[in-house]
Amino acid sequence: MNRNLNPNLPRLIPLLLALLLPGLAQAKLNVVATTPDIAAIAKEIGGSAVDITTLAKPTEDPHFVDAKPSFIVKLNHADAIIEGGAELEIGWLPALLDQARNSKLAPGAPAHISCAEGVQMLEVPTALDRSRGDIHAAGNPHFFVDPVNAKKAAEHIRDAFCNLDQKSSETFRANFQKFSDALDAKLKEWQAALAPYKGQQIVAYHNSWPYFGERFGLKIDLFLEPKPGVPPTPPHLAEVITKMKADKVHVIIVDPYLDRRTAETVAAKTGATVVDVTQFPGGVKGTDGGYIQLMDYLVKALGSALAKTN
Ligand SMILES: [Zn+2]
Questions:
Q1: How many Å lie between the centroid of ligand 1 and the Cα of residue 259?
Q2: I need a surface site. Which of 53, 149, 213, 310 has the fewest CB within 10 A?
Q3: Residues 6+ apart with CB under 8 A from 56
Q4: CA gap 122, 215 in Å, rounded
């Protein structure tokens, strides 16, 4: 006489276990990303299976991030760290990792994910010239604004996540495919939008746009900084102004953490337009919706500035 036993019980057991063991049922991968662009891409792949903490603010210079003591605690508890690599974070991340004492995150460990691996780096110097102030000693580390590189990084993050959390690997693979398909479709749209301006020159404050320039056919090779990380000097700016006038360059781009007034001074002397740009979702108004929205903003902002000056 087993009539009192609920016939649904076998089916209810997994549900009961999930209720009793919420920690086990929802163990998420606890991931730290150095910058908001990396965090946005990791979120696309990880979805609800990961918790992501971002160290740098979207308005902060990724080379010089204000390292807070709370970062050490976050890194101590993390299951994975994702960095851009190529020395982008060399001025602040290694010291934090040392203090965090989390052996899982040691460079080279599976939970230390460096996005630069597998990316075709531009401007790799044949000889180190860090002594002269250049902070791009391992090549140009600002590669995420080329969607092809964003996809490579996403692939790398997917593989690392699958390795660290095998039970969620189907989710990570499906999320990657969705992001990858969206990027492929958008890339065509972005290239078409900027195609009319092929070969045009743009002045940047800091040399962080060669990957964007290469992908979209723009020449972004004249800079307000004499060298990456070295502040503008009057003789250097005078040279830039002369070149801008000679080559009829009408657009200057500036990131939120750089000195917009310097860009405005140069613009006033050349009749150029200053355009606010960012490489990080949330760095400029209207970009906080993720990587694709950020790229939409950049393509639109540059396209309309170049259209005005044609
Ligand atoms: Zn840089």
A1: 15
A2: 310
A3: 34, 35, 36, 62, 65, 280
A4: 12
Residue 166 alpha carbon to ligand 1 centre in Å: 35
Tokens of 290: 């993720």
73-124 pLDDT, tens per residue?
A: 999 999 999 999 999 999 999 999 999 999 999 999 999 999 999 899 999 9
What are the distances in angstroms from CA 147 to CA 89, 169, 182, 266? 21, 23, 11, 30
Separation of CA 145 and ligand 1 centre (Å):
13
Quote the ligand 1 centre to 192 CA distance (angstroms): 28
Tokens of 258: 């750089």
Structure tokens at 211: 């990957």
| pLDDT tens profile 181-210 | 999 999 999 999 999 999 999 999 999 999
The Å distance, Cα 149 to ligand 1 centre, comes to: 16
